[in-house]
């Protein structure tokens, strides 16, 4: 029986709502093309999400960057790295990542034009 996510996790930017479900923005098995197994890729993504949940945003940015090397077309990773960079006060880098996520998938709900505008005001 799968553990039910807590209310905090369900509504957190870095929550585990997608745990156990395929990511919609993942570009297939791109990781294999870059010498990374799917299991190693998923482990890196899990570690990056856990780093965010414990507030270690510097580690999260590093881990999301590693995961993006394996799957550079993954809008979720750009969106999550954007949020981690925002927490670190790296506003321009956060805006750049949010714009990339939006470019890759304009309908991705966590990155919208108003969100980009809000980032641009910092």
From TrEMBL:
GO molecular function: Hsp90 protein binding
Keywords linked to the UniProt accession: Repeat, TPR repeat
SUPFAM superfamilies: TPR-like
InterPro entries, sorted: TPR-like_helical_dom_sf (IPR011990), TPR_rpt (IPR019734)
Protein name: Tetratricopeptide repeat protein 28
Domain of life: Eukaryota
SMART domains to which the protein is assigned, alphabetical: TPR
